[in-house]
Amino acid sequence: xxxxxVIAGYRITTAPTNANGGKCIWAFAEKSGTAYFIKQFLEPKxxxxxxxxxxxxxxxxxxxxxxxxxxxxxxxxxRPDAPGGGNIVLATDFFHEGSTYFKVTERIDTxxxxxxxxxxxxxxxxxxKTLGTSLKQLHDIEVVHGDLKPLNVLVQKRDRAAFHTAKLxxxxxxxxxxxxxxxxxxxxxxxxxxxEWRRYLRRDSGFGxxxxxxxxxxxxxxxxxxxxxxxxxxxxxxxxxxxxDAVNAGELLRLDPxxxxxxxxxxxxxxxxxxxxxxxxxxxxxxxxxxxACTLRPRPVRGPGPAKSPGEEGSTSGPRTSRVRANLGPxxxxxxxxxxxxTPVPPKSSGPATPVGPVPSDNPATSAAPAATAGPRAPExxxxxxxxxxxRTSRVRINFGDRNRDxxxxxx
Length: 412
Ligand SMILES: Nc1ncnc2c1ncn2[C@@H]1O[C@H](COP(=O)(O)OP(=O)(O)O)[C@@H](O)[C@H]1O
Ligand SMILES: [Mg+2]
Fold this sequence. Notes:
This protein is of the alpha+beta class. The chain is built from nine helices and ten strands. A six-stranded antiparallel beta sheet has the order 1-2-3-4-6-5, with helices on one face. Strands 7-10 form a two-stranded antiparallel sheet. A two-stranded antiparallel sheet has the order 8-9. A hairpin with a 2-residue loop joins strand 1 and strand 2. Helix 2 packs antiparallel against helix 4, helix 2 runs antiparallel to helix 7 and helix 4 runs antiparallel to helix 6. Bound molecules: adenosine-5'-diphosphate and magnesium ion (MG). Adenosine-5'-diphosphate binds next to strand 3, strand 4 and strand 6.
């Protein structure tokens, strides 16, 4: 796929990039006067219909078939014209050209919102409610998004609209509640993954597929809510690789003390280890119906010395470094130019590793994303403890933290 190509009638209008994506190259496209987002999957590849039969071909054919079935199954359940589904960005087309799969959705023009924590409480509540409503719609039909995180939420503000809305994207890792892909095939993000997802990956006994329900998304939504309202993820000890690991070890996540009690209580329940004890999205929406829930109390007065950021409250450790065991790259967080993108960025000091989203733009000259010119990112390596005892490699996305900030200027 390159700029100017026409693929199945879609004219590619921007230089393809893999910015903010893991398993795809994407670009904007145009067909019959409408703007689209088009995504080329790097894997799996679809074997030719007339390829010579062999055991390996049969496996690849089966993998491709399962991939198609999963995508078509989700598309059938989630129709773009479903009532009230306006903030769910669904596939409008899914096809293969030669051996390569493509997916198409409407193009979303994102608003500039680098710091949702600076919004007024009412603005925050509305942003979060639009996200919660989309999730509720999914959950009402027992679909788990499966990869909920800031990169998969685009923030939109229409010209004359008073409020920002959240658009939920990337249903490529979605599955029916209780029926996730096998541990070696399931995707997810190491930072936003739920405790039971981590254990499923490790094939811990008692953590079979039935444990992976919509509550997986509720855990991620709890973390994202903390991030959007305070600017940071909840705190946890550096010895843990992720919030889920801390929770699995029986630790309490450190919630920002400026949060009102109602929201603290809600987030505490949303991040419980036992998915059955987490609230459903309806309860989330109810709690956010009062913007007071997003009103921060003033910071506690401190003695001399620099104030700690919320993520460090009560922490004895220094600024949080990567919780990602596979983070090998230089840390550039905070040095990156002020993003003009739509994905919230937590502050450097308390540094939850939240990658930055792109600004869709048609001007390649503004792109600073190495990924935009360097071609597809090398396959990500799973963290050691995530490697299942199987011959196929895990598709779990390791959150590369600040490394991704450089990629974040992705301009297709
Ligand atoms: N409909 C869209 N409009 C504009 N930008 C989009 C759209 N869908 C995705 N993007 C951008 O492309 C990035 C990668 O897309 P995504 O579907 O999340 O791919 P992946 O499955 O590789 O994570 C997203 O993080 C977002 O920045
Ligand atoms: Mg994505």
